[in-house]
Design brief:
This protein has an eight-stranded parallel barrel with strand order 1-2-3-4-5-6-7-8, surrounded by seven helices. It is built from ten helices and eight strands. Helix 3 links the parallel strand 3 and strand 4. The chain has a single domain, classed as TIM Barrel (Alpha-Beta Barrel), CATH 3.20.20. With 251 residues, it is of the alpha/beta class. It is 43% helix and 15% strand. Helix 1 packs parallel to helix 2, helix 1 crosses helix 10 and helix 7 crosses helix 8. The structure holds 2-phosphoglycolic acid. The site of 2-phosphoglycolic acid has 13 residues, from strand 8. 2-phosphoglycolic acid binds next to strand 8.
């Protein structure tokens, strides 16, 4: 089955509500001028999610959150639930981004719990995995990715994981300007799919695997042309309409 390419922008902790709204309006205009067959989403800070979702209405752009807590409600100061995010207009949620793993104590076990909440609320989860440079150079690439995938997906059936999107983001490529080579990306994506096949069987051929890490207009088309690269999760370059639109055009 052909997998529809999926390009998502991860705005991280950038842009005010007004700036985010303006960006999505600009992007909607760019996509109206140059329609795409790809699925497109932007993931603003949670506080801007509702305004951005309102501004994106009537356009093909979906909106996602950058994280959620696994509990529905209660004494969890500072947290946001899947249902709240959905209520605010989100269709997607990024889970287990390497910055959350690096700075906020995210583990495969907590990604697994968040995934449960996302699926229960009907959000499309974008589960991020990726190795550090030391892990790749130390020959641990496959072990690290396999552990991350199996840990995140533990306990779910293929039926439950029908909407799953995986983002392969080598940590050494995020925000560094260094991208994986096209061959590295394809090889690793094929490996990720083989691990997914062990976990969810034939569904692995339908799961979109995005590449992330310094995707720019000048490298997007080549990376996205690889058979197992089904889209991109874009950080820095998603903050400018022209750059993000050019990446989408490359898909
Ligand atoms: P980058 O970020 O495109 O700025 O490298 C990607 C990501 O962290 O999702």
């Amino acid at each position: 089955m052909a997998r529809r390419k999926f390009v998502a922008g991860n705005w991280k902790l950038n842009l005010t509500i007004a700036e985010g709204t303006a960006l999505v309006q600009g992007l909607a205009k760019a996509l109206a001028d140059k329609p795409t067959t790809a699925e497109v989403a932007v993931c603003p800070v949670a506080l801007a999610l509702n305004a951005v979702a309102q501004a994106a209405k009537g356009s093909p752009i979906g909106v996602g959150a950058q994280n959620i807590h696994w509990e529905e409600k209660g004494a969890f100061t500072g947290e946001l639930s899947a249902t709240l995010i959905k209520d605010a207009g989100a269709t997607y949620v990024i889970l287990g981004h390497s910055e959350r793993r690096q700075y906020f104590g995210e583990t495969d076990a907590t990604v697994n719990k968040r995934l449960g909440a996302a699926l229960k609320a009907g959000l499309v989860p974008i589960v991020c995995i990726g190795e550090t440079l030391a892990e790749r150079q130390g020959g641990k690439l496959e072990q690290v990715l396999s552990t991350q995938i199996k840990g995140a997906l533990a306990g779910f059936t293929a039926e439950q994981l029908k909407t799953l999107v995986v983002a392969y983001e080598p940590v050494w490529a995020i925000g560094t300007g260094v991208t994986a080579t096209t061959a590295q990306a394809q090889e690793t994506h094929a490996f990720v799919r083989s691990v997914l096949r062990q976990v969810v069987g034939g569904l692995a051929d339908e799961i979109r695997i995005q590449y992330g890490g310094s995707v720019k207009p000048d490298n997007a088309k080549e990376i996205l042309s690889q058979p197992d690269v089904d889209g991109a999760l874009v950080g820095g370059a998603s903050l400018k309409v022209a750059d993000f639109a050019a990446i989408i055009a490359g898909a």
